[in-house]
Amino acid sequence: MFRGIRLVPDTTTIDFIGKRMIAMALSGLLILACLVSLVTQGLNFGIDFAGGLLIEARTEQQADLSDMRQRLNALGLGDVAITGIGDTGRDVMIRVPKQPGEEEAQMAALNAVKAELGTGVEFRRTEVVGPKVGEELVRDGALAVGLAILVISAYIWIRFEWQFGVGALVATIHDVIATLGIYSLFQIDFDLTTVAALLTIAGYSINDTVVNYDRVRENLRRYKTTTLADLINISLNQVLSRTILTSGTTLVAVLAILFFGGPVLRGFAIGLTWGIVIGTFSSIYVAMPLLLYTGVRRESEEDPFTEGEQQQPDAGGKAKG
Amino acid sequence: MLYFAKWKIGLILAVVLAGIVFALPTALPRSVTADLPEWLQPVTLGLDLQGGSYLLLEVETDAVIEEQLTNTVETIRSSFRENRIRYRDLGVRAGAVEVRVPEAEDRAKADELLRGIDPEGQTVDAADDGLYRVTFTEQALQQRRINAVTQSIEIVRRRVDETGTREPTIQRQGDQRIIVELPGLDDPERVKELIGRTAKLTLHMVDHEADIQDALRGRVPPGSTLVQSNEQTAGGQSIPYVVKRRVEVSGDRLTDAQPSFQNGQPVVSFRFDSAGARQFGNATTENVGRQLAIVLDDRVISAPRINEPIIGGSGIITGNFTVQEAQDLALLLRAGALPAPLTVLEERTVGPGLGADSIEAGAIASVLGLVLVVVFMGVAYGLFGLFANISLLTNLVILLGALSGLGATLTLPGIAGIVLTLGMAVDANVLIYERIREEIAAGRTIQNAIEVGYRQAFSAIFDSNITTLAAAALLFSFGTGPVKGFAVTLGLGILTSMFTAIMVNRLIVVTWLRRARPKTLPI
């Protein structure tokens, strides 16, 4: 019978809370940089939101990008961006900005590009989004992310107490801004799948936060005299092994998508990878210290799922009380 | 807690079995699944994986309203003339029909006539100076819009069916939009072309008295109109026609249209219903020697000379068609005209090549993700990691089964959702195992530690999964297409992983505990 390798020692006594100032300063700087970038550079909206055309084409021979650039830019469709993708040198991604005018103008542009490239080209993907739909998608996306944050925080508030709800709310907003900021800083294409990534990050980050909070809630009942700062430290150390294992498994899964999921999913996977890192960080350093400042009450309401605990002989826990 | 009731074990095994049964078709080759019943088919692939086109169309319902207002103008014109009511300024202005009746003695009759046109759907406002405004009620407008969209969906469906596309999806979205999904279509251009055309066919007499040069300068005789044609001069310019406004026969009287040949030229032969045949017969009898203009969507296709009366109700449309054009025109005429123009708001097409590549990439990412997670768990928890891995695989099977069984669509982001779920699914087991380790360390017995571990971890598992589920639900309601597919796999994955981590995994652990009776826990 074999047992697992302890990736994290059974008992750790890392002083998370003691280093919170450094962490919070780092986090503050990051958020500031993200906000500045968001305000000054904005997001690099893909065609889902900005409208316009996206064409992925495969040529018969090696694609001559500069020739293609010249020909397509001569069509008078504005700034046509052409990039080679994949490693065969035959695949190109063509982006045509939103055409002035209504929906018909976009379709006309698509036909113009297709006609210019001719018959020797395989059109592997074409997407045309008119101005009307683009605006609606922006609105729906923003609404979905906003609602998700609110619903999640409200749930935490109901299941825990308002201080936890506030902590979860701030931590989630922190993660959403930090992720938006990365997309803005590096001008990564921001499209519909990115919104999906944002919501998933919000869900994942909360998942992590909830596990930490759940332990704090339990310890609040168990250690009546410990200071809140010590109690948070005890809780974080208790769940540390789980935090590392779960972020580890999720991260390897997401990295598999990032490196092998193909170009369509790359932007999405970048967001998720970053989100898992930042979500884990915020669960420890944003959600937890906030409990110190909002002042959690010691007499928590009974949790329906742990009522049985009272009848059990309590071994007292391994951490010092 | 460590005791499993017989029925509970049965239920768990039944769910796992159902998962296997529903997931199985996805793993089998097409040749086998073709013979399986409809409820037992492989998971449906999204357009981004199997290739195909997604079109979002908007019905220009304003055009319908505009047309109805114009019709009302014509009705007012003829009824006022018939009743010798003097009027001025008749026309459509700001969404209403306006007409001025200057003579006070005409107004009572005018009022009566106006109110009689459509008493249900229109309201008539009269000003003291004799200005009448006829407007549609909000209800009538709404009804007409709904009708226009419903009719459009029907016509689009007929046209798509005529092209022979496999399993198209055509559905209404919102008030005036239509989603058309055409799987496996390599080049959507032709279908898009066919869907987008109004295909309104009317037959008019050419106005031989009118001078074409005058008409080009803007002097068109009343009752006639200038129409461009598909015929071209030697210099490549379109030849215009002056045709009478009066519609001799309209395309909705057609019962059939087929492509055929005449003197080696592709043509379209057609047949009218009995009323259409009578109108067509009358028109051709009274106008022998004149030209009959065949007008499609405000362009003259051709204007053949009537050599003799055509009584039988069938005829042919000539025009410089290619074979394809003749086929398409026949198709459009058979399927009927759209009540309003359609605009393509959004188009997404994925070729079959990219779809196949995406499936491959998705499969590689999934297998790799799974292997990495399995190794990770094995290293971290040893035997218990193996237990967790068995429940993880069970989770994958049940998730695939649920996707197939519920008829959900698997998209590329959906595959990403599955991979992500694999990573996150082990969280429940990690929580439980960590808890068991803690309880062991705290001095509990094996039995006791396992029991408490499962129970204590439950609230964290439950709360954390509910919140992710909420995010998935929002994504489902706001997302479209591929993103919706992601929401589905993420949401279902959370549910199935909770089931496997809590029920399946515990069943395995408890069974092992009974059989092996271990002195220490290898965790």
Automatic annotation (TrEMBL), chain A:
Keywords: Cell membrane, Membrane, Protein transport, Translocation, Transmembrane, Transmembrane helix, Transport. GO terms for biological process: intracellular protein transmembrane transport; protein targeting; protein transport by the Sec complex. Pfam families: Sec_GG, SecD_SecF_C. It comes from the Bacteria. The chain crosses the membrane at residues 21-39, 141-158, 165-186, 192-213, 244-262, 268-293. One of its GO terms (cellular component) is plasma membrane. It is found in: Cell membrane. One of its GO terms (molecular function) is protein-transporting ATPase activity. HAMAP family: SecF_B. Part of the Sec protein translocase complex. Interacts with the SecYEG preprotein conducting channel. SecDF uses the proton motive force (PMF) to complete protein translocation after the ATP-dependent function of SecA. Forms a complex with SecD. Part of the essential Sec protein translocation apparatus which comprises SecA, SecYEG and auxiliary proteins SecDF-YajC and YidC. Belongs to the SecD/SecF family. SecF subfamily. In the C-terminal section; belongs to the SecD/SecF family. SecF subfamily. This is Protein-export membrane protein SecF. It comes from Caenispirillum bisanense. The gene is secF.
TrEMBL record, chain B:
Residues 237-340 form the SecDF P1 head subdomain domain. The keyword Transport applies. Keywords: Cell inner membrane, Cell membrane, Membrane, Protein transport, Translocation, Transmembrane, Transmembrane helix, Transport. The chain crosses the membrane at residues 363-383, 390-408, 414-436, 457-479, 485-509. Residues 149-207 form the Protein translocase subunit SecDF P1 domain. It holds the Pfam family SecD_1st. Residues 344-514 form the Protein export membrane protein SecD/SecF C-terminal domain. It is found in: Cell membrane. It comes from the Bacteria. Part of the Sec protein translocase complex. Interacts with the SecYEG preprotein conducting channel. SecDF uses the proton motive force (PMF) to complete protein translocation after the ATP-dependent function of SecA. Belongs to the SecD/SecF family. SecD subfamily. Forms a complex with SecF. Part of the essential Sec protein translocation apparatus which comprises SecA, SecYEG and auxiliary proteins SecDF-YajC and YidC. PANTHER family: PROTEIN TRANSLOCASE SUBUNIT SECD (PTHR30081:SF1), PROTEIN-EXPORT MEMBRANE PROTEIN SEC (PTHR30081). This is Protein translocase subunit SecD. It comes from Caenispirillum bisanense.
